[in-house]
């Protein structure tokens, strides 16, 4: 019987998931979850690259629960998901060490998203751990020997680093790791509600998957639109307008969207109506999630159980991967040779 192919992706436990996460990765996770053996990392070691205070770390457990509950509510089936806490699988750090010599500093410095992450975290200089973020991410992906990785646009260059490391490792030491396939999102980046940057928890320009209808409406009504449109009878610009980008992504009534676009360009509809319709559409989109959330919240301890069982399963898988990598490299043989010689010497000394 052919072994089932695997998928790995996940999130840092820095807060709740939002619509940007959904279009960037979660929608693909939902679509592919039954096709692959699915591993979902709660990447708290990655969080330390930009959030490493005692207070930040103290929030990991609660934020991990939010991540799992949010993704279950979005449509992940707990029967088809292995969630695990990254820091509870220490063997991944050994893989990180083995991989870090297979990529150069200049190669990492060419990844633009790392500079963006440092800027968003208000870091004047890039920490060593942030520069090495893609290497640890490669260890995450390859620790369970994943075949596919659905991620958002920002992480696509990181996955390419993973592919390069896998090829180099396999070339140097023998075939151990699959060369992972990147699965791109249909909506590469979702602009934030402020219209100034991508949707980001650190900036706060977000609509959360767990928002109430009233919270959604408040966030939508405060959204940025066409800055040159001062009255409803002034023709407006649809292209690049965040409100219409959200309509395209989340409004299931496509005829309504086209009507709003036409009237907006002609100066025959106000921003208030366009936003009202968007709030209604996003709430329709989130309503099934709210129903699933209520169902899962009634099952006391479910989320914690999923994380514990998933972490235990993942650690067993990673231990097997590390053993295979060390064996391929000859590291296991080196120590065994030294140990056998030491044992022979000890035995000889004991008989004298």
From TrEMBL:
InterPro entries: aa-tRNA-synth_I_CS (IPR001412), aa-tRNA-synth_Ic (IPR002305), Rossmann-like_a/b/a_fold (IPR014729), Trp-tRNA-ligase (IPR002306), Trp-tRNA_synthetase (IPR050203). GO terms for biological process: tryptophanyl-tRNA aminoacylation. The keyword Ligase applies. It catalyses: tRNA(Trp) + L-tryptophan + ATP = L-tryptophyl-tRNA(Trp) + AMP + diphosphate + H(+). Its EC number is 6.1.1.2. Gene3D superfamilies: HUPs (3.40.50.620), Tyrosyl-Transfer RNA Synthetase (1.10.240.10). GO terms for cellular component: cytosol. One of its GO terms (molecular function) is ATP binding. It is an enzyme of class 6 (ligase). Keywords: Aminoacyl-tRNA synthetase, ATP-binding, Ligase, Nucleotide-binding, Protein biosynthesis. Belongs to the class-I aminoacyl-tRNA synthetase family. This is Tryptophan--tRNA ligase.
